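Look at one such:
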Amino acid sequence: MTFTPALFAGKTALVTGGTQGIGGAIARQLAAMGAQVIAAGLPPFAEDEFTGSGITLAELNVASSASVEALLAGVSQLDILINCAGIIKRGAEHDLEVFEQVIAVNLTGTMRVSSAARPLLKQSQGCIVNLASMLSFFGGGLVPGYSASKGGIAQLTKSLAIAYAIDGIRVNAVAPGWIATPLTQALQDDPARAGPILQRTPLGRWGTPADVANVTAFLCTPAASFMTGTVVPVDGGYLIS
């Protein structure tokens, strides 16, 4: 019964970073389960990819309090918040300004949206799912900002789970591994780089956005009603090998 089409009927979900990639897959999964979904991000939007989905596209800059407040001002009910907005600047994050930009979007942006959405989620006793990463668990020499932000997401998830429990709000996170998206296309196309990744991954394949979306949706269902403060790897076993 966990993935019945009408499970989220009457519920509203906000997916930041929901206009593409993993966020887009999560938005579609929640909509397929009956939720009214707002997929928010920075334009331009690939609107054709959402035609017929019933998903509402909205502009949102998670690094701006004014932008977050403006979006939520038009939302009267919120049951599910997915914090998926994020950036990565491989090789450039040792520059302090770039480092701070990545932290501002990935980590501070997650806190900003969660804090602003808390009153609405309290009314519905809803849930939050944050997007962590396998880099929440180990470092990345080319991406110190991204790695720091995702390590922070893991600890923020645990901290907000404690703080928001009094409001009946559950807070969890998923930690994707190597997922086949446009951001990893260069790696997928390079046998010298893709080979070691697949060799270390016990399940022997790249993950898909749908793999992450399925686990994210599960964390929003009644089946996960006694789960909070968890960081769930979705990595084909990469972390354990």
Notes: Residues 6 and 34 are 5 Å apart (CA to CA).
